[in-house]
Design goal:
alpha+beta; 12% strand; five-stranded antiparallel β-sheet; helicase; five-stranded mixed β-sheet; single chain; 839 residues; 44% helix
């Protein structure tokens, strides 16, 4: 450890002064620093200062922490805490900013973006380069370069002219002249007097540039009021026709503030409406049941093999439209249900040569689960999925259309945004639904966009899609988070406040709110899902075992039907309308479909009598008997195809029908007709003519036609695309910190000075085998510690500090100070050895 009384001279020294808890917080906040594990703290500091890592860290700061970093980027390097506070509060001060600054600065320090004590705050060099003002990338503060930076290319004579025009004494060199001018611009009293002497037109020019951008255009012969500003150095030319407002001048005009608006506290998520929790839960449960029914209907529609897979992957526009019509929803909603079933592992491509989408074996297992558990599986898949159905129909980077189930729909930020939106809803009183504007404002504060603000940024669109999809899925009801949705997040219900929040403590950032939870571990999520299923189960309607038959050949299902009843009824009748009650219509075609599936007329009569709460209407009985009487009277087999019938008059009727011309029928015998069409076409043609033929096998038996379910081989649900390296768990953090500390000890332990050349920093010691053995044996006798270089079986090199205990058989047994345990090393893998300096 470094001496805490001595200020650190580098980020590595600042990290060396941290304890293990602080290092763990850094690695948890920036998991990219641990992939792979650094060899020592110097390497950790180097990695923390790389451009890619710093950009990623800056993108994950909240707005006030980012504003604090931006203020440090325009402050002196290093800057005292007072200067930073003045840049954020201005001359008038701001108690809210003063109270929030320690937290923001603590976040920057924790993430190794800022180091040093309060008297010497330093922004990491890469972060300063990214945030400091430059013509190529203007600062979000709107400030320009300092006087020293703006006058860097100016001639000494011109600088002296400016100093003289400003009423300052001439100097012998440009450095002191610029320093004198800087002192003038940072002196509030003298600067106010200087500006008071300017004409109104000159002050108007400065007011247009004060909040940025600080650059302006002038002609070769500027007007008098512009010439006055140039003469005083209040505007400095940077290129022909371009001038800039120096940073010190802008800060004076702003009253010392680096930002026009400082946001130390997150905007509150405002309730737009409040409903009774029971109403919210009932509404959400009803939508949850609709979600289950919709996914079941989708997979039933694709049961015998769904749409073909496009060559580039995904569904065609035509297939998506057909699916939307089948589900009776809009195309974007159909895309959501298809993607949800795919994310849950319920459908996939079959992998055949003629590749098609179909249900997976997991779908059959899913159907056997209780409804509440089936819903939690869908909800879990939605929460963690990185595929975003809202992108369907858009364009990718190569201007190709994004299709449902196709490539290019993954967005790694989607799970985090979904969880964040639902967590914000969980922070409201039960039954309260927020306004979308306040949710979006909160998300933009927590993850502000660097650069120009765009209303259509991805996180905002993801948030809006989350609100819509949560309502479709039944996680929310009437815009408010339901009880089972809250349980799914693992969040407890918040206490309803007796009055509106009054102090800053009521508007704490999300990680300070007691109702906000981080994404759950797999074990925690399983527990939360079970709790959610228990809350949802009593709210779902119980499946019915009956229907209401009506005289107009319809049946009304007043609620969800038992699966066995629904499956038979789907074959026996056609669905006419859906909603709270489903209406089925019996037709000759639907009855024939049931007979083709192997049912007899008596079976159908018995089925209807058993499941009807009303008497079976006479028209329905007549319909079944009439279709059954004619069913199978004609027999179609394979000759190329033939028709046989005991009633030759019926065959004569078929031959005389003009609609049979396309079948090219001819009589082979009084009871047999031959056709040029195949059996399937012949069956369809005769049915279109109003007959009810039955197919028969080569043995002359009636073929029972049942739909054969098509299943893909076993498929796992698609893995979400990670949003960077995963956050390390406690075990990995502990092991990584131990390894970093060990490597740092080996790298920083002083070596005894010898006549041999010392290895450079980071290099392994190099000695001959004889020298290594002799030094090891001597250390066993004296009990001294040694510094060694070691290459393991995988070829990874490391430095270690060991105290040899025994040397024999080509191995050294030693207490390894870096690993804090006794280990045995092969001598042939030791690259070299060096003695440590005495304390």
């Amino acid at each position: 450890m470094s001496n805490p009384a001595v200020p650190p001279r580098s980020l590595a020294e600042a990290l060396r002064a941290r304890d293990d808890v602080s290092l763990a917080a850094l690695l948890r906040a920036r998991p990219d620093l641990i992939t792979p594990v650094p060899t020592d703290l110097t390497q950790l500091a180097t990695r923390a200062g790389t451009r890619a890592s710093v950009v990623r860290a800056l993108e994950r700061l909240d707005r006030f922490a980012l504003q604090t970093a931006e203020a440090l980027a325009v402050a002196a390097d290093p800057a005292p805490y007072g200067e930073l506070l003045a840049l954020l509060t201005g001359d008038d001060g701001d108690p809210a900013v003063s109270a929030a600054l320690p937290r923001a600065l603590g976040t920057l320090r924790e993430q190794a973006l800022v180091w040093g004590d309060d008297e010497r705050l330093r922004l990491v060099r890469t972060a300063r380069e990214l945030l400091a003002p430059a013509p190529q990338h203007p600062s979000p503060t709107g400030l320009g370069p300092t006087v020293q930076e703006a006058t860097a290319g100016m001639s000494p004579g011109r600088i002296q002219d400016i100093v003289t025009a400003a009423g300052l004494g001439s100097t012998h060199d440009s450095v002191s002249a610029v320093a004198s001018l800087t002192a003038l611009f940072t002196d509030r009293e003298r600067m106010s007097a200087l500006l008071a002497g300017l004409p109104e037109e000159s002050r108007e020019v400065l007011s247009r540039l004060v909040w940025g951008p600080p650059y302006g255009q002038v002609t070769a012969e500027p007007a008098a009021h512009l010439r006055r500003l140039l003469d005083l150095g209040l505007l400095v030319p940077t290129a022909p026709g371009t001038v800039v407002l120096p940073r010190e001048v802008a800060l004076h005009l702003r009253g010392g503030r680096a930002h026009r608006e400082v946001e130390p506290l997150p905007p509150a998520v405002e309730p737009a409406a409040t409903h009774r929790p029971q109403v919210v839960d009932a509404t959400a449960a009803g939508q949850a049941y609709t979600a289950l029914a919709t996914v079941e209907e989708l997979l039933k529609d694709w049961d015998e093999g769904g749409p073909a897979v496009l060559r580039a992957g995904g569904l065609s526009v035509r297939d998506l439209k057909r699916t939307a019509v089948a589900l009776d929803v809009a195309e974007p909603v159909a895309a959501f249900w298809v993607e949800l079933a795919y994310a849950a592992g319920l459908l996939a491509s079959d992998g055949e040569a003629d590749e098609r989408y179909a249900a997976t074996p997991a779908h059959d297992e899913w159907l056997e689960q209780p409804p509440a558990e089936r819903w939690t599986r869908l909800a879990e898949a939605w929460l963690t999925a990185t595929r975003v159905s809202g992108l369907v129909g858009g364009r990718d980077a190569k201007d190709r259309t994004l299709s449902t189930l196709g490539p290019g729909l993954d967005r790694s930020a989607a799970p985090e945004v979904r969880h964040r939106v639902l967590t914000l809803l969980a922070g409201l009183p039960e039954g309260a639904s927020p306004s979308r504007e306040s949710v979006l404002a909160r998300l933009r504060w927590e993850r502000p966009l660097r650069g120009p603000q765009r209303e259509d940024d991805l996180r905002s669109r993801l948030a809006e899609w989350t609100v819509t999809e949560a309502e479709l899925l039944g996680v929310t009801g009437r815009g408010a988070l339901s009880g089972h949705g809250r349980a799914l997040l693992g969040a407890s219900a918040p206490r309803t406040p007796d009055k509106a929040p009054e102090g800053p403590g009521d508007k704490l950032p999300v990680h300070h709110r007691p109702t906000v939870a981080e994404p759950l571990s797999p074990a925690e999520q399983a527990t939360a899902s079970a709790a959610s299923a228990r809350l949802l189960a009593p709210l779902l309607p119980e499946p019915l075992d009956h229907v209401l038959l009506q005289a107009d050949l319809t049946a009304v299902a007043p609620g969800p039907l038992q699966r066995s009843l629904a499956e038979v009824l789907d074959v026996l009748a056609d669905v006419e309308s859906k909603g709270g009650a489903t209406v089925y219509r019996f037709t000759p075609g639907s009855v024939r479909r049931a007979l083709d599936a192997g049912q007899s007329a008596s079976d159908l009569h018995a089925f209807l009598a058993a499941h009807a709460r009303t008497p079976v209407p006479q028209p329905l009985t007549y319909l079944i008997d009439d279709v059954a009487r004619r069913h199978g009277h004609l027999r179609v087999g394979a000759a190329s195809a033939y028709v046989r019938c005991d009633d030759d008059a019926l065959l004569n009727e078929i031959l005389a029908d003009k609609r049979a011309a396309g079948l090219r029928l001819r009589r082979l015998a009084p009871t047999v007709l031959a056709a040029q069409a195949d059996p399937a076409s012949l069956l369809d043609g005769l049915r279109a003519m109003g007959f009810a033929p039955a197919a028969e096998s080569a043995e002359g038996d009636v073929l029972i036609t049942r739909a054969h379910a098509h299943r893909t081989p076993p498929r796992t649900a698609p893995e979400p695309v990670p949003d960077g390296p995963p956050v390390p768990d406690a075990t990995l953090l502990s092991a990584a910190i131990r390894a970093i500390r060990a490597g740092d000890l080996a790298a920083t332990t002083p070596r005894r000075q010898t006549d041999q050349p010392q290895p450079a920093s980071g290099e392994l010691p190099r000695t001959s085998s004889a020298e290594t053995l002799a030094t090891m044996q001597a250390a066993v006798l004296t009990g001294e510690a040694l510094w060694i270089g070691y290459v393991n079986a995988e070829g990874s090199a490391s430095q270690r500090v060991i105290a040899p205990i025994r040397v024999e058989g080509g191995f050294v047994t030693a207490y390894d100070h870096t690993a804090d345990e006794v280990r045995t090393y092969p001598l042939h893998r030791v690259t070299g050895v060096a003695e440590l300096a005495e304390e």
